């Protein structure tokens, strides 16, 4: 591997998309638990 090779990290938009998906997943999980508690 050369020194000039780019770092092996995902691009910024991919990281922000993954963060948004993680947030949406938590929101969905909390909403499902709330629905189960209300039923």
Number of strands: 0
Q: How much is the average pLDDT?
A: 87
Helix-strand string: H
Rg to the nearest angstrom? 18 Å
Structural class: mainly alpha
- Give start-end ranges of low-pLDDT stretches: none
Indicate the percent of residues in helices: 55-70%
Number of H- or I-type helical stretches = 1
What fraction of the residues are assigned to beta strands by DSSP?
under 5%
Distance between the termini: 57 Å
Largest sheet: none
Shape: rod-shaped
Structure report:
There is one protein chain. The protein is rod-shaped. With about 40 residues, it is mostly helical. Helix content is about 70%, strand content about 0%.
Short structural summary:
Keywords: Membrane, Transmembrane, Transmembrane helix. The chain has 1 helix and no strands.
Topology:
Blueprint lengths: L11 H27 L1
List keywords for this structure.
39 residues; mainly alpha; rod-shaped; transmembrane helix; MmpB-like
């Amino acid at each position: 591997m050369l020194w000039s090779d780019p770092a092996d990290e995902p691009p910024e938009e991919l990281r922000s998309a993954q963060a948004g998906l993680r947030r949406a997943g938590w929101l969905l999980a909390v909403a499902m638990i709330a629905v189960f508690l209300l039923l």
